[in-house]
From TrEMBL:
Localization (cell): Cytoplasm, Cytoskeleton
UniProt xrefs under SUPFAM superfamilies: Arp2/3 complex subunits
Predominant subcellular localization, coarse grouping: cytoplasm
Protein name per the record: Actin-related protein 2/3 complex subunit 4
Family under the similarity heading: Belongs to the ARPC4 family.
Cellular component GO terms, alphabetical: Arp2/3 protein complex
Gene Ontology process terms (BP): actin filament polymerization; Arp2/3 complex-mediated actin nucleation
Gene, per the UniProt record: Arpc4
Amino acid sequence: TATLRPYLNAVRATLQAALCLENFSSQVVERHNKPEVEVRSSKELLLQPVIISRNEKEKVLIEGSINSVRVSIAVKQADEIEKILCHKFMRFMMMRAENFFILRRKPVEGYDISFLITNFHTEQMYKHKLVDFVIHFMEEIDKEISEM
């Protein structure tokens, strides 16, 4: 649709900028390397969260830090049936989270699904492919729900 392409382009550009990650050990616990976007132990290591909205129900929250990025997606759900279908599909995905290396088992509050990308993911995988995966996922979800 006409509004989907600019929305996905904005998400793509923001993700490409946010995925400049580096290995960073904890400042609190020696020899620990946890995703700062999750632990939130040092405020200076966190970036300003960015929300990109297509409309009031469909939005993406991109939270960045020095060594990780959390991408949370709220999917459009026009009626009760779409809400149930979306919930079932997201549960199905999250139960298989270990197969999708960057998928979180539990979404951020207020969102339907979340991805966690760490510096280890960007070291082992191509950055542009990670961005392509998230964008492709968003396109497919939009298409599937529109067709139901």
